[in-house]
Write a structure and sequence with these properties.
four-stranded mixed β-sheet; about 10% helix; mainly beta; 6 strands
């Protein structure tokens, strides 16, 4: 689906970027969620340069662990992701991007979401063997993983007041 105003750069502050915690390989996991539906689309990995490019350009950019190179989502497939919001978690070790997904979807298999296989013996879900076990078509035939908690991470991201005491709650 075409997006009317694609790029939404995110003006992250230097202090916010300094709070991001990369693993020993210099990477941080980045969850990608569709802004309009809350559907989890994929998980990718970003190094510092990919994160900065994503925020600066408003398009998702990742680090391929297998190819050891940068890749911008949709450059070859046309299935681009346009960033609407960017978040980092309480520990700074996981990122969350709310995007408008353009094209067929986020998964390299051609599915809308990478999360189309469910564990367990679910009626109509298949087994997942050889990559064929879709968990049904989900909401509106989008490939969503059912209607349970796995379909979305955060249906609504809470407002941050900044009133949390130092150290916060655990």
């Amino acid at each position: 689906m075409p997006v009317s105003s694609p790029a939404t750069p995110v003006d992250a502050l230097p202090g916010q970027l300094a709070e991001v915690r990369y693993n020993a390989d210099g990477l941080v996991p980045a969850i990608v969620q569709e802004a309009g539906t809350g559907q989890v689309l994929m998980l990718g990995w970003m190094n510092e340069a990919a994160l900065k490019e994503t925020l600066d350009t408003g398009r998702t950019v990742f680090w391929s662990r297998s190819r050891k190179e940068r890749w911008r989502k949709g450059d070859t497939s046309g299935d681009r992701q346009w960033v609407r919001e960017a978040w980092y978690d309480c520990d700074g070790d996981t990122l969350l991007f709310l995007v408008d997904q353009e094209g067929k979807g986020a998964c390299h298999t051609g599915k809308r979401t990478c999360f189309f296989r469910r564990f367990g013996n679910v009626a109509g879900a298949g087994t997942g063997a050889a990559g064929t076990g879709a968990a049904g078509t989900g909401a509106a035939g989008t490939g969503a993983v059912g209607t349970g908690a796995a379909a979305t991470i955060a249906p609504a991201v809470p407002e941050v007041s900044g009133d949390e005491p130092e150290g916060g709650r655990r």
